[in-house]
Design goal:
Largest sheet: 7 strands, mixed
Structural class: alpha+beta
Strand order of the largest sheet: 2-6-5-13-12-11-10
Radius of gyration: 20 Å
Oligomer: single chain
Order of helices and strands: HHHHEEEEHEEEHHHHHHEEHHEEEEH
Helix content: 25-40%
Shape: globular
Length: 392
């Protein structure tokens, strides 16, 4: 994940706080193996990202009987434009260029904008990729609230003793949340021989054995290094602590009680049929947005029951010691890093501004996995224009 990205987004919450062509649904005949998902073609991504339960093993997360209510206060964004490097682009340019399958903007519980493209609609599930990391972090908070886990200061081996006698013997849960274990992991999405390409879908013993062999490049807590495998570790420690699979725990703690409107699916690894803590909840766009509202509300339900510890989201969105714009599996943004977002490869996105109570969520199948200067520059300027338009 590009470390300069939050700098591009810095002005977004500063700004808003001052205001309080379709593709068919057929399965491509040449769909690639799930193991090569980082290198799928555009056609394969547009089909595969909304049909993961047909391609990969998943576990069901059942919807709520009482969906969290969203009302409409729609704004006309047909004339929205933004500028990038001296050229003007329309909202449709952005959608087509970055294959935005769904875009929703919600403020204070009201849908201001909702759009679906490339054959999708409000019932279409879409893979989240690393957006899942932020959800797994909240499940860890729920496990602390439920007293299955004592503290983020605990050594991770307290809950995953399989990692004793390795570098992780001296690594705390908090250091893993901050991506600062010191383990030497390569998260290069463009390299088929990188650790993320080889091992990001590993779980349990295979994951632990792989991480043991990597060695370390620094002492725990000294350096930030983005590492999907360690988000899988967080999933493993939550699973171990609560004695249940992550799908059921998510269903019991968040999905049903908060009021998610649709069923979801969570991708499992092939070896152990366990959810990947770092990836791949498949959910509708509206429920992506409800995840954002849940985080914005610090895990509080309508009956004032708190699913998360009282200060969990504040703690989760506080700058880490080694990277000021990263917290507990959340990216930080805006003036004084007051806003935050969950970010997944190929354009999955949940952006949350607590000051204006604005949520922007996106399903996407853009060409590039990571956010480079071109992708980030477009997204920054599109977001600024979007927020200007809804604040008129």
């Amino acid at each position: 994940m590009m470390k300069w990205l939050p700098i591009l987004f810095f002005f977004l919450s500063t700004y808003i706080s001052s205001f309080e062509s379709n593709t068919g649904n057929q399965n491509p005949s040449n769909i690639l193996s799930p193991k090569t998902i980082l290198f799928w073609s555009t056609e394969e991504k547009l089909y595969g990202f909304k049909n993961m339960e047909k391609i990969l093993p998943t576990r069901l997360i059942e919807k709520s009987d009482s969906p969290y209510p969203l009302t409409y206060e729609l704004r006309d964004l047909d004339n929205l434009t933004y500028n990038y490097k001296g050229k003007k682009y329309t909202i449709d340019d952005y959608i087509q260029t970055f294959k935005v399958a769904g875009l929703i903007v919600i403020r204070d519980g009201k849908i201001l904008y909702e759009s679906y493209n490339f054959g999708n609609n409000e019932t279409s599930r879409w893979v989240s990729f690393s957006v899942t990391k932020s959800v797994t972090s909240m499940l860890l908070g729920a496990a602390i609230k439920d007293r299955h886990i004592s503290s983020v200061k605990d050594p991770i081996v307290t809950y995953l003793p399989q990692l004793r006698d390795s570098h992780y013997s001296d690594v705390s849960i908090e250091q893993v949340l901050h991506m600062s274990s010191g383990v030497n992991w390569n998260e290069d999405y463009s390299d088929p021989n990188s650790d993320v390409s080889i091992a990001s879908a590993l779980n349990s013993s295979k994951l632990y054995d792989y991480l043991r062999e990597l060695g370390a490049f620094s002492e725990p807590g000294n350096k930030f290094n983005y590492n999907t495998a360690e988000s899988n570790l967080i999933g493993g420690l939550v699973r171990s602590a609560v004695g249940n699979n992550l799908s059921k725990y998510l269903e019991q703690k968040i999905w049903k009680p908060f009021g998610m409107e649709f069923d979801a699916h969570w991708v499992l690894d092939y070896d152990y049929n366990l959810e990947l803590g770092g990836c791949c909840i498949n959910a509708t766009l509206r429920d992506y947005a409800r995840i954002g509202i849940f985080a914005l509300n610090n895990g509080s339900l309508d009956n004032n029951i708190n699913i998360l510890p009282d200060n969990w989201m504040k703690q989760s969105t506080t700058s880490s010691p080694n990277l000021e714009y990263y917290g507990y599996q959340w990216w930080l943004d805006g003036s004084d890093y007051s806003s935050f977002y969950a970010d997944g490869i190929f354009g999955q996105f949940i952006w949350i501004d607590p000051v204006s109570k604005t949520i922007v969520a996106m399903h996407s199948a853009r060409d590039d996995a990571d956010v480079d200067l071109y992708v980030g520059g477009h997204r920054l300027n599109f977001m600024i224009s979007l927020l200007q338009e809804i604040n008129r």
